[in-house]
Write a structure and sequence with these properties.
Layout (H helix, E strand, L loop, with lengths): L1 E9 L5 H13 L7 E8 L6 E9 L9 H10 L4 E8 L2
Antiparallel strand pairs: 1-3, 1-4, 2-3
Length: 91
């Protein structure tokens, strides 16, 4: 089954570059075992300091509350700004 976690992060514009650098480090250390297929980072077309981190999974079981990886990322990213987290299942 394919599913995706979306983590949205809103940071102060003055902190954007620092957060992007630290986010790159966090993502490079993410363990791609357990069905994690891809990690992508996007920024909002109008607000560069609004980021979206998409974790794409392919596994036999969806984690409705989010994966351990996603929950760990949120825990770290909360220190940089406002976060939201959602889980989506491919139709």
């Amino acid at each position: 089954m394919k599913w995706m976690e979306i983590i949205k992060l809103q940071v102060a514009d003055s902190d954007r570059e620092s957060v992007k650098h630290q986010l790159s480090e966090l993502i490079s250390n993410v363990d791609h075992n357990g069905g994690l297929c891809d990690v992508k980072v996007y920024h909002n077309a109008l607000v560069n300091s609004d980021l979206s981190i998409n974790l794409c999974w392919k596994s036999g079981k969806v984690e409705p509350q989010g994966s351990a990886t996603g929950l760990c990322l949120i825990h770290v990213l909360k220190t940089f700004g406002l976060t939201s987290h959602s889980v989506w299942i491919e139709q």
